[in-house]
Amino acid sequence: MDQLASIxxxxxxxxxxxxxxxxEEIWRYAEVGYQEFQSxxxxxxxxxxxxxxxxxxxAGIPTAFVARYGQGKPVIGFLGEFxxxxxLSQQAGNxxxxxxxxxxxxxxxxxxxxxxxxxxxAMAVKEYMKDHGLAGTVAYFGCPAEEDGSGKMYMAKAxxxxxxxxxxxxxxxxxxAVDGSSSLACICVLYRFHGRATHAAGQPHLGRSALxxxxxxxxxxxxxxxxxxxxxxxxxxxxxxxxxxxxVVQDHAALYYFIRAPKVSQAMELRERVDNCARxxxxxxxxTLEITxxxxxxxxxxxxxxxxxxxxxxxxxxxxxxxxxxxxxAARFQEGYPAEELKAKNESYEKEYGPQIAAQLxxxxxxxxxxxxxxxxxxxxxxxxxxxxxxxxxxxxxxxxTYAIGTPGHSWQLTAQGGCSIGHEGMLAAAKVLAYAGVxxxxxxxxxxxxxxxxxxxxxxxxxxxxxxxxxxxxxxxK
Length: 479
Ligand SMILES: [Zn+2]
Fold this sequence. Notes:
Layout (H helix, E strand, L loop, with lengths): L2 H12 L1 H14 L7 H13 L3 E4 L8 E7 L3 E6 L30 H22 L3 E7 L8 H7 L8 E8 L3 E2 L2 E3 L1 E10 L15 H15 L8 E8 L11 E10 L2 H22 L2 E10 L6 H14 L6 H12 L3 H15 L1 H7 L14 E5 L5 H5 L4 E7 L10 H7 L2 H23 L1 H15 L20
Parallel strand pairs: 3-4, 3-5, 5-13, 7-12
Antiparallel strand pairs: 1-2, 2-4, 6-13, 8-10, 8-11, 9-10
């Protein structure tokens, strides 16, 4: 561990109790997107105690906020999330299904740790600035509704990230690795058809079926698949099938589409073609059509220059220091996962990182090594609103182990592990690494310049908003 790593380690360890208690507090609130009032307030309170000035309710979103310390350039930002997921409540540390206090929502993606880990990084950088006279500004961005609501897209659209020279974040994971792969851009669109109801046997010729329009639209899109790029992903669900009576011609029906592609510009183009399938279906059926964009987000572009700083930080700080008890508890969780899934996981490590690393990991429930830095040109098939930040400034993220290998994403098992010491260790390790990269970036203007050049080349230096500019976030969650 170099000198900077041990200084930052000290700052974070000094506040260990406060930070883990805050993570547990947000874990207990388990508030879903745009409803994170108690969680945001707890984070804001902690940042104020730590000497940050907090701007609340940014971008017109009550639970979005920015906290800053210092002044002038460079400006380094840490992104925090804190929203939970419906139906994933679970007792902390319990490997058998048992809901927590009759709860409903739970932190099945670990965003309680994500929010507090990034806060701890901002706090450690602030301490370093104070003690070592490092100039500039460190900011923490409270980003609501990552799971369903694209909080960061609305914040990017409002210019909230414009001040940044670099953005750093992380995600709870089963592995310790810098995130070197991009993610898919995604646009979410509701297609509502309106027709004319009649007796389906008596006067069918007078009816105009909105349900027929939905079916024809889907047929059109499914034929379109042959002529779209391989990496695109288009999926749909019926939001309204027009009612349950076969003898009534359905005068209303609606489809909800997610349209994904490796680049936001590609997703926007493809969306036009999907819109045309809907228009064609309306024309064929004599119905009218209402198209509403509900949401959207950009692809994530990992900045390689700043990723190298994260990797250095990971190697200096090291993997989370899990105790024997943590390893034993994680192994209990693994007992509930399908054996073939665990085998496939190990094989995927072997394929990606070679037999040596696979051998090191064999039989281990929690990852205790740092994986080598890898940039994958192919986008991983999910989507995240961190992508929108990566179109505003150089952006990077890392993964740190906070749960057992083989734990499914968005699961109650993940909720359980994020509320106990397994999650705490990963969170504190992530905080130290993020702080390390943040300080290294702030003290070397050349690194930030190089990161910016790379960002300009990748994006043209311009934020491409995937949704209409006047679209407002759906704060009540109804789409
Ligand atoms: Zn997540």
